Amino acid sequence: MISSNALRMLVLHGPNLNLLGTRQPSLYGHCSLDEINTLLLNKAAKNAITLDIKQTNIEGELVTYIQQTTGTYDAILLNPAGYTHTSIAIYDALIACGVPAVEIHLTHLSHRNRNDSKTAPACIGQIMGFGKNSYLLGLDAAHAHVKELVNSAGGS
Fold first, then answer.
1. For residue 22, what pLDDT band results from cuts at 50, 70 and 90?
2. pLDDT tens across 54-76, in order?
3. Using CA atoms, how far apart are residues 119 and 87, in angstroms rounded to an integer?
4. Does residue 1 fall inside a structural domain?
């Protein structure tokens, strides 16, 4: 899509992220998914970014959402959660859609002996280990990347 008007991004939260705030708070923090979404929406509004946000525990739904981004979204913020280490289907969807994606994780994967991301090679970058701020940093990174693409294409 990449327009010079307000940017549009899709935020995808993978399995079990709906349990944030109560699921292993010593590892994932006390912030709920709704609170993270509110932080994202507030930051996006300040930067003329429209966000659509979805959470699913189903791999096929994540694939479908990614497939539907072409021509509609300028970027994807993706936390594939447990599918990070197993999903070639999500990787393939990211490659096929051609929409720049930033992979996000609340925790640092290598600190949890989960170094192998199957989905990260299809993304423009990966941000992890900053808790809820990983999402905000991801939004900043995606925004900067898309603005750079617009500028290099001659947009404003």
1. confident
2. 999 999 999 999 999 999 999 99
3. 7
4. no
Please determine, for residue 38, whether its predicted confidence score (pLDDT) is greater than 90.
Answer: yes
In a domain, 97, yes or no: yes
67 with 56: CB under 8 angstroms? no
Q: Residue 1's CB: how many other CB atoms inside 10 A?
A: 14
Q: Which residues are catalytic?
A: 28, 105
User: Could you give the dihedral angle defined by the CA atoms of residues 16, 19, 20 and 24, in that order, rounded to the nearest 10 degrees?
Assistant: -90
* Single-letter amino acid, residue 54: K
* CATH number (domain holding residue 132): 3.40.50.9100
pTM: 0.91
Least confident of 1-5, 41-45, 127-131: 1-5
CA dist list (Å): 144 to 71, 73, 100, 112, 151: 19, 15, 11, 29, 10
- Structural domain total, the chain: 1
